[in-house]
Design brief:
Low-confidence stretches: 1-14, 235-266, 329-343
Radius of gyration: 25 Å
Strand order of the largest sheet: 3-4-5
Largest sheet: 3 strands, antiparallel
Strand content: 15-25%
Distance between the termini: 51 Å
Number of helices: 13
Number of strands: 10
Helix content: 40-55%
CATH class of the largest domain: Alpha Beta
Number of domains: 3
Mean pLDDT: 75
Shape: elongated
Length: 343
């Protein structure tokens, strides 16, 4: 009897339905899609900067790769608010993996799209480090700091020449601080050894997974995949060619303009900047280890183990990230405060 009643109700509901919703009822018009694509192209041309918001990865086709700052610019343009669902897995041996689902919403709470990303301390660049070396008595030449960002090979040659001039043999050298805090040339072995404490990179891989999920979500929600590809500059161990295109020799040797100097381009970070960053971090309750982990991930530089290794413009970006609460775990209130308006 109950089964017959249920069947009757189903039949009654079906017969009383005069309209059946189809996928076409929810379709976005071609005019809206064209306008959205035009907006993306305008943002790319007028707002984004090559090698900062996007970059062409050598060996990975001509389509530019969307970087995190570029994804943030697009999300701000369309007023998208990200929400993250984080899954943590313990892998044994102290290693950890984060899988993140990033959902994008408009200010009215409507779901717009989603993306996924993962990162683990088992990835090569987090699992291994170059074997430790010995600190020499050779100070690190200033030319090394001038070249290490734009001309890594030239910077390595500066260290090698300084070591050879002091009678130290070898082909690979690094930098370490001595007991007095002075940067000195150090010997370096090519042998890779496992990090003895994977926990040092927990925050770094969490931020990396978050970034990957966010970029994927922005590409999916805005239909920008025909313009950009998923960012792959952080995966050189998977795709050996996946590194940002190096600046030309002319760009590397060009002197910064007065305006660029004023904005911190190619200048070493000052003690005043370092103090401002440390004060801001203390105010926000951000540990130094988390701050440095974020800097390494943000600027793709594994050798940042001290704020003094930042460039001045990087220090400005880091301070801005602290003040806008992009570092650390923001509260629900701060997330709502940062939520863009409209879509």
């Amino acid at each position: 009897m109950e089964g017959n009643t249920a069947q009757a109700l189903v039949a009654s509901n079906y017969q009383g339905c005069h309209e059946v919703a189809t996928i076409d009822d929810f379709a976005t018009s071609a005019a809206v899609l064209l306008q959205r694509k035009k907006t993306l192209q305008t943002v790319m041309e007028q707002v984004m900067i090559k090698d900062e918001h996007f970059g062409v990865i050598p060996g990975c086709g001509k389509k530019p790769s969307l970087l995190k700052p570029g994804a943030e610019a697009i999300a701000s343009t369309f007023r998208l608010c990200p929400r993250y669902i984080i899954t943590k897995s313990e892998l044994g041996g102290g290693h950890r993996e984060y899988e993140i689902l990033c959902e994008l919403y408009n200010p009215a709470g409507g779901f717009v799209g989603s993306g996924v990303g993962s990162a683990t301390t088992m990835e090569t660049k987090y699992r291994f480090r170059v074997g430790g070396g010995e600190i020499t008595e050779v100070p690190v030449p200033k030319a090394y700091w001038d070249r290490r960002k734009n001309d890594p090979k030239g910077a390595a040659k500066v260290l090698r020449d300084a070591a050879h001039a002091a009678g130290i043999e070898g082909e690979s050298f690094g930098t370490q601080k001595d007991d007095s805090g002075q940067w000195m040339v150090s010997t370096k072995t090519a042998e890779k050894v496992e990090h003895d404490n994977p926990a040092d990179y927990y925050n770094t891989v969490l931020k990396m997974a978050k970034k990957r999920a966010f970029v994927d979500a922005v590409l999916t929600a805005t239909g920008a995949s025909d313009i950009f590809t998923q960012d792959i500059e952080d995966m050189p161990e998977v795709i050996p060619q996946a590194k940002p295109s190096p600046k030309s020799q002319t760009q590397a040797q060009a002197q910064p303009t007065p305006q660029e100097q004023q904005n911190g381009a190619q200048r070493e970070i000052s003690q005043q900047q370092i103090k401002a960053i440390m004060d801001a971090a203390e105010r926000e309750g951000i540990a130094m280890s988390d701050l440095l982990s974020d800097a390494r991930a943000r600027f793709q530089a594994d050798d940042i183990d001290d704020l003094s290794k930042l460039w001045a413009h990087e220090g400005m970006q880091l301070l801005q990230a602290i003040n806008s609460r992009q570092i650390g775990t923001p509260t629900a209130t701060s997330q709502m405060d940062q939520m863009p308006q409209g879509f």
